[in-house]
Write a structure and sequence with these properties.
By secondary structure, the protein is of the alpha+beta class. The chain has 6 helices and 8 strands, in the order αααααβββββαβββ. The longest helix has 23 residues. The chain starts with a helix and ends in an 11-residue tail after the last strand. The model has no long low-confidence stretch (mean pLDDT 78).
């Protein structure tokens, strides 16, 4: 058997166990060697700072340093506090009274002098009663009812909308009010079909209910539609106009009827 064949032959089991036992023994020797060395000496540290509780005077001085007004303005604990902020209070000692008391003397002859003087200067007087005539009964004044406008309510059309023919106008009722009402002026826009859009109140009549009714009636107004032609662009446009509601004013109905005699 040559050397090449011996080198290619694998290790036997005995060889492997021998190598493992050798490594184990070497590891045990290393453990015993390092454990046999002397123990570690504790390193002594330098002296550390020590904390202790301060007395009541020291705590007060430390808290005074945290006051933001200590140096900004005069402070009792500042550099000028002992000179002009801690002024001693002077003690007042009243003088001793040595003079004996002097009482006021009462003059018996002057008792009632003021009352006698009042009686002499103020003479009594008698009450005079005069007969008064019997009261006269007057009739209560009844306020006259406000005048009634004989002209019924009407609708006027102005601006560019006056050129278009009116097709339908709702009936305008009279308005109850204590005073005469002015006109409700409403601005509107009318399309090609004659329908009214966007009513806006321009002037009030003086009665909010009448103005709301004017806006409602303005939406019910109808105009004749424009002719539909291919070349007529005015059909698609909106015609502006102003509707003026002239209200007929009537007095309000009495709430309490007068009693009969």
């Amino acid at each position: 058997m040559n050397q090449a064949a011996m080198a290619a032959q694998p290790w036997s089991r005995r060889t492997w166990w021998g190598v493992v036992l050798v490594l184990l023994a070497l590891q045990l020797l290393l453990l015993v060697w390092f454990s046999a060395r002397g123990s570690l000496t504790q390193r002594q540290t330098a002296s550390a700072p020590q904390l202790q509780f301060a007395g009541p005077v020291a705590v007060t001085n430390l808290l005074a340093l945290t006051d933001p007004t200590l140096f900004a303005q005069g402070h009792p604990n500042g550099f000028s506090g002992a000179s002009w902020m801690k002024i001693p209070v002077p003690e007042y000692q009243p003088p001793e009274w040595s003079e004996p008391p002097r009482l006021l003397t009462l003059n018996a002859q002057q008792l009632g002098a003021d009352f006698r003087r009042f009686v002499q200067t103020n003479q009594p007087f008698t009450l005079a009663f005069t007969a008064k005539p019997p009261p006269r009964l007057t009739e209560p004044e009844i306020e006259a009812a406000p005048p009634v406008t004989s002209v019924p309510s009407a609708l006027l059309i102005q601006d560019e909308l006056a050129a278009r023919k009116l097709q339908f106008a709702p009936p305008l009722p009279p308005q109850e009010a204590a005073d005469l009402l002015t006109n409700s002026v409403v601005q509107v826009f009318v399309n090609g079909d004659g329908n009214v859009f966007s009513p806006v109140l321009l002037a009030s009549s003086g009665k909010p209910d009448a103005d709301v009714q004017a806006l409602t009636l303005a939406r019910e107004v109808r105009f004749e539609p424009l002719p539909r032609t291919n070349a007529n662009q005015a059909y698609l446009s909106l015609t502006p106009g102003i509707l003026i509601f002239e209200w007929q004013t009537v007095p309000p109905a009495p709430t309490n009827a007068p009693s009969r005699p």
